[in-house]
Amino acid sequence: MAQAAAKKKKKGDEVATFLYDGLDKAGKKVKGEVRARTLAAAKAEVRRIGINAKKVRKKPKDLFGSKGKVEAKDISIFARQLATMMDAGVPLVQAFDLVGNGSENPAMGELVLKIKADVEGGTALADALANQPLYFDDLFCNLVRAGEAAGVLETMLDNIATYKEKTESLKGKIKKAMFYPIAVIVVALLVTSVIMIFVIPQFQSLFSSFGAELPAFTQLVIRISEFMQAYWWLVFGSAGAAIYGLMQLNLRSRKFREIKDRVVLHLPIIGPIMHKAAVARFARTMSTMFAAGVPLVEALQSVSGATGNAVYANAVLRMREEVATGTNMMTAMKAQNVFPSMVVQMTSIGEESGALDTMLAKVADFYEEEVDNAVDALSSLLEPLIMVILGTLVGGLVVAMYLPIFQMAAAV
Length: 412
Description:
By secondary structure, the protein is mostly helical. The chain has helices at residues 2-12, 39-48, 72-87, 92-102, 106-120, 125-130, 138-150, 153-207, 216-252, 254-265, 270-291, 296-304, 310-324, 329-334, 341-353, 356-411; strands at 16-23, 29-36, 52-58. It has a three-stranded antiparallel β-sheet with strand order 2-1-3.
């Protein structure tokens, strides 16, 4: 009974979208939508915005009942919108209303209105964000808390928005570099599998009527085709299970993530890009935290999770331990042997001049540009390389199938 009541209560607490028809203050007919937890709350919200509602009804769900999900891009847009509205003098609660009701993603709208409800109840903004740990990490919450404590929340939100936009842009560039070759390789493997399972058997039946021994290369391809015909389910099942298993290991095993990230950093071509991306994220995050007045030891704790690579995360945590014992940041950074000498020198200059945040921001700008250039160069390099691989793969199958025909023609 208690569980059923809890579930019922939880369901009633969900924010829904309501449609309204009515008249505005000028007597003009208007239509729109608001988000609220109940029909009564929706009617109150419509009255609050100055609409004399004739009809308020719950918006029907779409065909699949999908609400979407909150992406990192949505959080970045939310930070920018909130920063812009607060800078324009819009009160915080009203800004939440505008952002939540204006969001194109229903899931994001619900999230914003949940945060608004907490803030209206007297909760500090940083604590309200911390109540949604799936979407707002410690770094985001710590920066907001620092802005609230210093009385410069709108400035801090603007810094957070800039930080999120730059980090998401960096992630997008890396994904762009990875997506194209992976997509082409997957398509190539699927096409090769189709040829092996459906096309080569047709040639095999033709070759059986020749009564002559087939070339070794052709026999090899036919054996592979026979295996694919008999055990295609095992091949695809094993591949799917391996991918799923690796994904679960990456989520659940810290040791596996460390090994994977270490291997990635040593890969040719890809490794240098990942090194530069990790340094750029470290410098950008550290600059933002330090500029916000967050204590260095506390900042390093949050920065470790923002580097995007377990090797760099562990290095930052070791730096934190050394800084906590009185070591300066430059010495602690140099001892890790993962940061480029230019970054160490810029950090040293920043510490000596008292402009560490400015120096790290310059480091972040430099390495973000380096990643951008490296991604463009990688894309230019991969296109001809992939064409060569595809040509070799498909061309090899074609040659294997036509070798017996060429031999027969030569014999005749």
